[in-house]
């Protein structure tokens, strides 16, 4: 995409992933749109949250590397209809290989009309603490939930 998309066409997916030793993986995600305040500060307005849970039946070896495309697919199901691009920002070190993930995820996301970009943000779970709360809730619950706000 060479043209700049308006802010209402871009969804920002902030993501925190927890990988347990027993092979369970949980993810907390917040889907939001970006806007600006009167004084020029950036504001992310959430419109959906995902509390996602995966076990050995979903992810074969329980690796985060295998889970990231599955997590992205579940987040794509919650994206609003106006979205043309989703930018995933997550705390998992595996996201440093963003080009590999972008190729894998875009293989199926472009069929939905959404391009995906991936970025590694080491401490995003500290700046948005509800991401870890969503992931921990998924571990306790044992099932995935998604909710439009």
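^ Assign residues to that structure.
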């Amino acid at each position: 995409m060479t043209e700049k998309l308006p802010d209402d066409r871009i969804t920002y997916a902030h993501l925190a992933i927890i990988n347990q030793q027993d092979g369970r993986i949980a993810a907390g995600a917040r889907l939001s749109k970006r806007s600006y305040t009167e004084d020029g500060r950036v504001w992310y307005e959430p419109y959906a949250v995902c509390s996602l849970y995966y076990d050995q039946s979903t992810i074969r070896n329980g690796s985060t590397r295998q889970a990231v495309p599955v997590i992205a697919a579940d987040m794509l199901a919650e994206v609003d209809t106006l979205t043309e691009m989703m930018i995933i920002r997550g705390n998992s070190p595996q996201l440093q290989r963003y080009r590999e993930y972008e190729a894998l995820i875009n293989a199926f996301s472009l069929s939905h009309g959404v391009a995906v970009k991936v970025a590694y943000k080491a401490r995003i779970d500290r700046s948005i603490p509800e991401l870890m709360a969503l992931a921990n809730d998924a571990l306790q619950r044992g099932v995935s939930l998604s909710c439009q706000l």
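The mean pLDDT is 89.
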